[in-house]
Design a protein that fits this description.
This protein has 369 residues and is α/β, with parallel strands linked by helices. It folds into 2 domains: 114 residues, Alpha-Beta Complex (Aspartate Aminotransferase, domain 1); 220 residues, Aspartate Aminotransferase, domain 2, CATH 3.40.640. The chain has 13 helices and 12 strands. A 7-stranded mixed beta sheet has the order 2-8-7-6-5-3-4, with helices on both faces. Helix 3 runs parallel beside helix 10.
């Protein structure tokens, strides 16, 4: 028998869903980072009225989409991208999962994907689906990638190093300039997943492209920034030769962000007011949830970025703490081992539900939001 996919991590939470659903008012699902807040009306209007649904969209993205994405990232981090430096994706997850396969086609003599030991599961899964070695890189006590821990023999075989900053699940902020320097010194592509960059709390937003484009890719998505996860809009930018290769390959494979979605993305990238409002909402929710976990004996620090609270389990057992949150507060959260063995002493709490639902969790523990 050939490859059999493992259970999807969130499918393992069914028992906890049953426990949490017994509360008056029902289960509050904080396990998946799927936004519930509304995107701007102008974005929805563009989605429904672009007139682009009749024709095939360009696989690399329309000129308007690529210009809007480049201008937005330039404004956010002080980069100097042009539309020629940008290519569209169908969200970012398909790109994350597919990139190892495409890199292996280009450089078949290498076979290794490096990724943070506590991180988004799709980095490892993408390597597995491509038939590559998936090698986790240790992280430090602040959940930052330890470049010094990468073995030379793994670097020599590496197709790429994934870096995620602000990080999912722990909200750590990596030194992206140092990662770019390491990648160039070791002839390893560094791919920086920056989908939470707009929600950076500790200092300004940052991107690896400010260190130069050679040997790096930055990956972005509107799923989090503009609450458009269902629309599937994202882009990558960086090394000119690599984005040209990937753009051609993806065109042959039929990867096309739908035209109406690209029109909506242009509207979203052009508006920062809704992002500023969302930033205030997430900070408020994070602070409230810190009170919730503190009431249960967990002193959870404010993340450096992102909208997840990475809360240590009081007894070091993530599953036991997740069960307690379900039974006492009616909240469904993700045990940290979903994101790597090093995360097994924490739970991840996604602050994506509407305020009234998150307030309900707090109220069940006698906390006023």
């Amino acid at each position: 028998m050939g490859y059999q996919p493992p259970p999807y991590p969130y499918d393992l939470l069914d028992e906890l869903k049953t426990i949490g659903s017994a509360h008056d008012g029902g289960l509050v699902d904080l396990s998946i980072g799927s936004p519930f807040d509304a995107p701007p009306q102008a974005v929805l209007d563009a989605l429904g009225n672009s007139g682009t649904e009749r024709s095939y969209p360009p696989s690399i993205g329309t000129p308007a989409f690529r210009e809007a994405a480049a201008s937005w990232l330039n404004q956010l981090v002080g980069a100097s991208l042009t539309s020629d430096d940008v290519r569209a994706t169908i969200g970012s997850k398909e790109f994350v999962a597919g990139l190892p396969h495409w890199l292996k086609l280009r450089t078949p003599e290498r076979d290794t994907i490096l990724f943070p030991a506590v991180s988004y599961p799709s980095y490892e899964m993408g390597a597995t689906l491509a038939g590559c070695r998936a090698v986790p890189v240790p992280v430090d006590d602040a959940w930052r990638l330890r470049l010094d821990a990468i073995a030379p023999e793994d670097a020599a075989r590496a197709l790429c190093l994934w870096i995620n900053s602000p990080g999912n699940p722990a909200g750590g902020l990596d030194d992206l300039d140092a990662a770019a320097v390491w990648g160039r010194a070791n002839d390893v592509l560094v791919v920086s997943d920056e989908c939470y960059a707009a929600f950076t709390w500790d200092g300004p937003a940052r991107s690896i492209v400010t260190s130069g484009l050679d040997g790096v890719l930055a990956v972005h998505s509107l799923s989090k920034r503009s609450n458009l996860a269902g629309a599937r809009s994202g882009f990558y930018a960086g090394d000119p030769a690599l984005i040209e290769y990937l753009g051609q390959l993806r065109q042959h494979a039929g990867f096309m962000q739908p035209g109406p979605v690209q029109a909506a993305a242009v509207a979203a990238f052009s508006d920062e007011a809704h992002v500023e409002q969302q930033r205030d909402i997430y900070v408020r929710r994070l602070e409230l949830m810190r009170k919730v976990t503190a009431a249960l004996g967990s002193d959870a620090p404010m993340p450096g970025g992102g909208f997840y609270l990475w809360a240590p389990a009081p007894d070091g057992d993530a599953w036991a703490f997740a069960r307690r949150l379900a039974s006492e507060a009616g909240a469904l959260v993700s045990p940290g081992n979903f994101y790597g063995a090093q995360g097994s002493g924490h739970v991840r709490i996604a602050l994506v539900q509407p305020d009234e639902r998150i307030n309900l969790v707090a109220q069940r523990l006698g906390i006023v939001g």
